Amino acid sequence: MVCVSRLFQRIVFVVAAGVFAALGLGFALGQVGFFGVHAGGQDGAYQQMHVYAEVLKRIQSDYVTTPNLNDVTNGALHGLLESLDPDSSYLTATEYKIYKDRPVTGVAQVGITVSKRFGYATVVSVAPGSAADKEHLEDGDVIESIGDQSTRELSLAVIRIMLEGKPGTTVTMSVVRPRKADPDKVTLTRTVAAEPALGEQQYENSTILYLKPGSLSAPRVDAIAAQLKAAPKGEKILLDLRDCTSGDAAEGLRLANFFIQQGTLATLTGQKVPAQTFAADPAKFITSAPMAVLVNRGTYGAAELAADAIEGDHRGDVVGERTFGEGSVQKTLELPDGAALLLTVAKYEGPDGKKIQDEAVTPNVQIDQSEDDAFDITQPKGDEALNKALDLLKAKTS
């Protein structure tokens, strides 16, 4: 009986969340014109407002207890924004203050990049040698809760803040791993991690230059440019973007430009954002040497832009697994009560017109990289994707 009651309570609160989202945010945005859009232009969405009002009335009058309207409203707004995409978030006034005041440098991390999938925080990639790596977290693991808070009830922006902190402090999370029935309780110590080193290796008697950026910061992309300029004529390039999650979109496109002399690298489109086309700059082009790119589920953001541009231009083979799917731009919109929306306002499209956020990057040579394969650049034997890319490059003429 208790289980039924709890289930009913959750169902009613979900309905209440939808009601408050439609009435509260719908009225504020549509009637007041917060985004410059009025109710009449919403294709009949507001015609059902009386239905929502009736449902709310029934909840208020007949529900077993009086709901906490503040909690329900916050939950409604959180759910409304997250229903758009994982990166769109509603922050309460308290959360937004923490978000604005958070330090941008010297912050300690636990070594994971997270996004949201199916409502819960999901590990995108794990930094080698980090606290998360030592506890054997892997991409695809689901973070069910942080402390005593379910990640389903938290926005992505808040989750990322909760994982940060002062060096030496700890964070406890409940992690659901593939093929395990029960979640694991994991406690990780936050540390300030340096940017991973640029991985370099020579294969096939120095005829193939292997580069693994680790991240796509401006200094790292500069370092890659220097390596490419110093490479002997005829040396082929293998660019490993697996588990590359950090970096600015502009750096991802600059990296792709090193290999592409002309043509479209990407476009950026949005309802209220003027369309932008990012074309290759011949002055930034470095090499026409045969090349291949390695990607996996941990290839994210700027690295996806680079891989997609190279694949879309048919500049080289993209080998590995389908990437994560992150390619959007957010805008912060402050609300009158001190809260804020982090709203996705534009998405990147590859040269083929597909939105990376929606469809990710699918390699033209797909390899299902098992979790047991090690990405050790000095031991390629067990790395099927790496071996395949090397074989493809060996078959190409300079």
Descriptive overview:
With 398 residues, the chain is α+β, with helices and mostly antiparallel strands. It folds into three domains: 2-83; 99-189, Pdz3 Domain (Roll); 199-330 and 345-394, 2-enoyl-CoA Hydratase, Chain A, domain 1. 32% of the residues lie in helices and 22% in strands. The chain has helices at 2-31, 49-62, 69-82, 93-101, 131-134, 156-163, 218-230, 249-257, 302-312, 356-359, 384-394, and strands at residues 89-91, 112-117, 120-126, 142-146, 149-150, 170-176, 184-189, 199-203, 208-212, 236-240, 264-269, 276-279, 291-295, 317-320, 328-334, 340-349, 365-366. Strands 2, 3, 4, 5, 6 and 7 form a six-stranded antiparallel β-sheet that branches. Strands 8-9-10-13-14-17 form a six-stranded mixed β-sheet, sandwiched between helices. A hairpin with a 2-residue loop joins strand 2 (112-117) and strand 3. Helix 1 crosses helix 3 and helix 8 packs parallel to helix 9 (302-312). 39% of the residues are buried. Residues 1-41 and 371-375 have low confidence and may be disordered.
